[in-house]
UniProtKB/TrEMBL annotation:
This is TonB-dependent receptor. Its main location: membrane. The keyword Repressor does not apply. Pfam families: CarbopepD_reg_2 (PF13715), Plug (PF07715), STN (PF07660).
């Protein structure tokens, strides 16, 4: 039996493959005409016919001769003697004094009589003088104003229709191209002797003939049998988002994008497709131009289409990587026959916090603080006298707003992209550069990104095509040493009664970190990330129906993280020793593919077959170094200035690989009955050799009911009706990031003191599981798609159920073993739900049109089996995993009001025995008369929404366009604690909402009695759980397309000015917290709202 070597692609061999692929791609850059220049002919002929010479030339070259037998007679005798001569020299000699001439077109040579050639020139000259006029109307007979009328093949010669839809244009070609927003492009063939035309344009429904990107190829949307959704570049336009994931929110049903931060360089979304599939949930697979890539390093302006494969029927072709769905991105490419276009897009924005923390002022703080001290000790001396409180009230004593002192009101951002594209009939090209600069709400935080991308594709001949795609980016993120989180923490813990500066002008120190001082003096951190992607391919068209394509791709990721902590003092504060660190992380990923495609239509049958092979290798290395002590505050870029005796060094890495075989068969009969089958086999080096391979099949079928005669002939208002059914399996290999070799013993290194000596030790760090295998996700789906009244109305509905079996969990083991728990196949999770997309578009008249798109998605997530490992999340003890409940469920006591009377305090069950009037009561769920952790806690909420929605509105009026998108999430809870919820917790200030607290006179309060040090009320309970459902105006824009009559004078093809906003309105019950914020203590940067101005220009 032949064995499979998982590392048959060594780095050295990879480099050889890459060198070959790039060399092949360079060949594509040479224009076809260049081959004519280098072709040399050697020939000696005496007294032979011209025809004989031409046949010899065909043998020595790729040229073919064409001529009319009735006009061209090639029996004339000629003699020729040439050596290494260009083909033009040979032809000139052959046709000298013959009465014939020739014309070279690509690899064809047309021979004609001199008279016929002269008539062609004369006809061309006459044709150039033709004036063509006409009128352009819609199907209702209304004139279309401003339609673009261009001579096909000569995009610089054009005009637009006037107020009556009329045009007049001098042309030299034989065709006109008419385009207008909302209508299908029309090509008009010009007839000899006809100078006036009536042109009817059809509305662009953009439905059944649309081609969408799928796994390893494209497919007609009408023939899809899986759940596939796409958004085009238009959906990303006029957006001031630097990351693609942030732009996905609300766009596609079933795709949940949660943006937890608006910090520069971190404005990304956490994407989940149709619920969480496992406890070790991971992001969807991202495919960029055919190979695995990353989404948020791409400049959004470079994207042509983005497609989401949501079910197993569409994603199983990616096997083990597809358990969490697949996002397929294609970048912009040049188009054949397109003249060079230069495009610029730029946008400037002003960003400010969506939610601003509302802390109490000095007067309110003094009252609450006194009350908190008194509630804990009625005999204590109160820190603020009545005179102090009055002076704070009337402004005699100042009040410091630490939030305003530490943070700017807004931050400036800008994004620019410049691209060039075009193509001949054989070669296309596209290149772009991008620049992003994001300022932060503090002076220390910022992000800059530089993007570059190019593509070149060429048909060498009718059999061979080659191409290359290359891209790269460099991102630099900077912050203070203590970072934004520390500043936000300092703001939450600073009292408004304390000033920012002391009387001598230095920073004030009142026993707490001064957030203004620490960001000004603490030092810096810097993260520099770079990525280089290069992909080369060659395709051979063996038959018209059969092609084979080879692809090689490399992706190099490099990150340098460095920082320097300065030594500084203010008041009695001392920052401690200087520190520095320098870390390097290198990832090299290699992907090789061989793809064979066969497509054939015979009669009423169509079949498409794909077969492929893919190998993937990932090599990771890192190096870390740090020092502490010594140095000075001026030399901050080198560790060598710090104390060498304190240095710590660390390095490591890993290698992993996958090998895959896959195939797909698509069949349709009469474009009505559709069938598709996919199969993929994956092997991963992460699993034991006996369990290394996993096989993932999928089958699906569709019935285009609207193509049946009983619908076509009898129900004219049904434009489209299709039923889909699918089943499939995908795999999951997601383990902890540091658990690369779960089936191989791995070792850790530590240092221990024995006696007075320090010894280095090595020990096996994790238990080995040789029975580990793939987790599998099984998906069932039923879908219905419909369009009515020429697709003016429509909907797409998908109902699904997917279940993860053999979930990868880390089962607890006895601590005496002294090793970490191994991964095991021990659990299952189920998601059931539906996606619904409602569509409506309408053109009211020649000036007005609009479109409405409402998407709604529901998912019920449930843990079916935990195999005895139910319990708290190791990283967040408020989130528990319990069978019968969703992943990420909050677990705690059930609040039942306050202790309002002495009788309640004496007789009601208590949790700690230290409760006082105004403290929180909890339900005694097991009825034993006590409040205990074992008997009285239950699931009280969940952190992932069951319902998500998006509403997209678009309106067109003449050259204006308006769009707005609302995004919402429902049936989701947020648990906020510590400084985000508790007054005076851990030295924090109080929030405005704490003013509504329990007092003996006010029982119906939203907050319990105020305390300073007591934490009786701060245990995990439903009291602190909040409804985190929300609706947000995610984006809004108003654009104006400058008229062509004005732009043509400037040499500009088109230009658009627009204003836009992001996150401008949020409707939520939460107070002082953004519903998407990821930090339960309120220290994260939080989302930002933006106001933007943009410009797009094409030349």
């Amino acid at each position: 039996m032949r064995k499979c070597n998982m590392r048959w692609f060594s780095p050295q061999r990879m480099k050889k493959h890459l060198a070959f692929a790039l060399a092949v791609s360079l060949v594509a850059m040479v224009p076809v005409s260049a081959f004519a220049q280098v072709l040399k002919i050697s020939m000696t002929k005496t007294n032979v016919s011209i025809e004989n010479v031409l046949r010899e030339l065909e043998k020595q070259s790729d040229y073919t001769f064409f001529y009319n037998d009735n006009q061209v007679k090639l029996n004339k005798k000629v003699s020729i003697n040439v050596s290494d001569a260009p083909i033009e020299t040979v032809l000139n000699e052959v046709f000298k004094n013959s009465g014939y001439t020739y014309k070279i077109v690509d690899n064809q040579i047309v021979v004609s009589t001199a008279a016929a050639a002269a008539k062609e020139v004369q006809a061309t000259q006459q044709q150039k003088q033709r004036n063509i006029s006409g009128v352009v109307k819609d199907a209702m007979g209304e004139a279309i104003i401003g339609a673009s009328v261009i001579e096909k093949g000569n995009p610089t010669n054009g005009t637009i229709t006037d107020i009556n839809g009329k045009f007049s244009l001098n042309v030299g070609g034989n065709e006109l191209q008419i385009t207008y927003i909302g209508y299908m492009p029309e090509t008009v063939s010009l007839k000899t002797g006809v100078a006036s035309y009536n042109i009817i344009m059809k509305e662009d429904t953009k439905t059944l003939d649309e081609v969408v990107v799928v796994g390893y190829g494209v497919q007609k949307k009408a023939n899809l049998t899986g759940s596939v959704a796409s958004i085009s570049a238009d959906a990303l336009e006029s957006r001031s988002v630097a990351s693609v994931s942030a732009a996905l929110a609300g766009q596609i049903p079933g795709v949940t994008s949660i943006q937890t931060s608006g910090a520069p360089g971190s404005q990304t979304g956490s994407i989940t497709i149709r619920g969480k599939n496992s406890i070790n949930a991971a992001s969807p697979l991202v495919i960029v131009d055919g190979v695995p890539g990353t989404m948020d390093t791409i400049d959004p302006s470079d994207i042509e289409t983005l497609t989401v494969l949501k079910d197993a029927a569409s994603s199983a072709i990616y096997g083990v990587q597809a358990a969490n769905g697949v996002i397929v991105i294609t970048t912009k490419q040049g188009k054949k026959g397109e003249k060079t276009h230069i495009n610029y897009s730029g946008i400037v924005s002003w960003a400010s916090p969506v939610v601003k923390r509302q802390y109490v002022n000095a007067y309110e703080h003094a009252i609450l603080y006194n009350e908190a001290v008194h509630n804990e000790n009625p005999n204590a001396v109160l820190p603020f006298t009545d005179e102090d409180i009055e002076n704070y009230r009337n402004g005699t004593y100042p009040s410091t707003n630490w939030y305003d002192e530490a943070f700017k009101k807004s931050a400036f951002e800008q994004m620019h992209n410049l691209s060039i594209s075009g193509g001949s009939e054989k070669t296309t090209y596209n290149a772009s550069i991008g620049y992003t600069n994001q300022g932060g709400l503090t002076d220390e935080i910022s992000y800059k990104r530089y993007n570059a991308r190019m593509s070149l594709n060429s048909d060498i001949n009718k059999y061979v095509s080659v191409g290359v795609n290359a891209s790269g980016y460099r991102g630099i993120k900077e912050d203070g040493w203590m970072g934004y989180v520390t500043v936000a923490q300092g703001v939450s813990r600073s009292y408004p009664t304390d000033p920012v500066y002391a009387e001598d002008g230095s920073f004030n120190y009142s026993g707490k970190d001064n957030p203004v001082a620490i960001q000004d003096q603490s030092g810096f951190t810097r993260s520099t990330a770079q990525q280089l992607n290069a992909t080369a391919y060659a395709q051979i068209n063996i038959l018209p129906e059969l092609s084979v394509k080879g692809v090689f791709s490399l992706r190099h990721d490099y990150t340098n993280q460095e920082g320097f902590k300065k030594h500084f003092t203010y008041g009695n504060f001392d920052s401690g020793l200087r520190e520095g660190y320098d870390e390097y992380y290198n990832h090299n990923r290699y992907t090789s593919q061989v793809l064979a495609n066969y497509n054939k239509t015979f009669g009423k049958h169509s079949i498409a077959v794909l077969g492929g092979f893919e190998s993937f290798e990932h090599i990771y290395k890192f190096t870390k170094a740090s020092r502490k002590g010594g140095g000075n505050n001026e030399l901050t870029e080198s560790l060598n200035t710090l104390d060498a005796s304190s240095q710590k060094n660390e390095d490591g890495g890993y290698e992993m690989s996958r090998l895959s075989y896959f195939g797909r068969v698509q069949y349709d009969f009469m474009n009505k009955y559709l069938f598709e089958a996919n199969l993929r086999a994956d092997a991963s080096s992460r699993f034991p050799k006996d369990n290394r391979w996993g096989v993932f099949p999928a089958i699906s079928a569709g019935w285009r009911i609207s193509e049946e005669t009983f619908i076509k002939d009898n129900v004219s208002w049904i434009s489209n009706l299709k039923l889909r059914l699918g089943w499939g399996k995908t795999g999951n290999e997601e383990l902890d990031p540091d658990d690369i070799y779960p089936a191989i013993p791995t070792y850790a290194y530590e240092k221990y003191m024995f006696g007075n000596s320090l010894y280095s030790t090595a020990y096996e760090s994790r238990y080995v599981n040789n029975n580990l295998q793939w987790a599998t996700v099984t998906n069932y789906e039923l879908g219905l798609e419909a369009g009515f009244l020429n697709n003016m109305f429509g909907f797409e509905l998908s109902v699904y159920k997917k279940k993860t079996n053999d979930m990868l969990l880390y089962m607890p083991i006895q601590g005496v073993i002294g090793m970490g728990a191994p991964a095991q196949n021990a659990g299952s999770v189920e998601n059931t739900g539906f996606d619904l997309n409602l569509l409506h578009n309408n053109r009211i008249n020649k000036d007005w049109s609009y479109a409405v798109n409402l998407n709604i998605a529901y998912v019920k997530n449930e843990i079916i089996d935990m195999n005895g490992t139910e319990g708290a999340n190791s990283k967040n003890d408020k989130l528990w995993y319990i069978e019968g409940n969703p992943i990420g469920s909050y677990y705690g006591y059930v609040a039942n009001g306050y202790f309002n009377t002495d009788d309640e305090l004496a007789n009601y069950p208590k949790r700690t025995g230290k409760e006082q009037l105004g403290d929180i009561k909890y339900l005694d769920l097991n009825g034993d008369g006590k409040i205990t952790a074992d008997g009285d806690r239950q699931i009280i909420g969940k952190n992932f929404p069951s319902w998500t929605t998006g509403l997209n509105l678009t309106l067109y009026y003449k050259d204006f366009d308006f769009s707005a998108m609302f995004q919402g999430a429902f049936d989701v809870d947020g648990y906020y604690m510590a400084e985000a919820a508790y007054a005076f917790y851990n030295g924090a200030n109080a929030l405005k909402r704490h003013l509504d607290r329990w007092t003996p006179e006010h029982h119906n309060a939203s907050y319990p009695r105020i305390t300073k040090d007591s934490q009786t009320n701060f245990t995990t309970s439903s009291f602190w759980l909040q409804n985190a459902s929300y609706v947000r105006l995610k984006t809004i824009s108003l654009g104006y397309n400058l008229p062509n009559s004005f732009l043509s004078k400037l040499g500009v093809q088109k230009a658009k000015l627009y204003v836009a906003g992001e996150n401008l309105l949020t409707f939520s019950d939460l107070e002082g917290i953004d519903p998407e914020e990821g930090n339960e203590r309120g220290w994260s940067y939080g989302n930002v709202k933006k106001v933007s101005i943009g410009l797009k220009v094409s030349f």
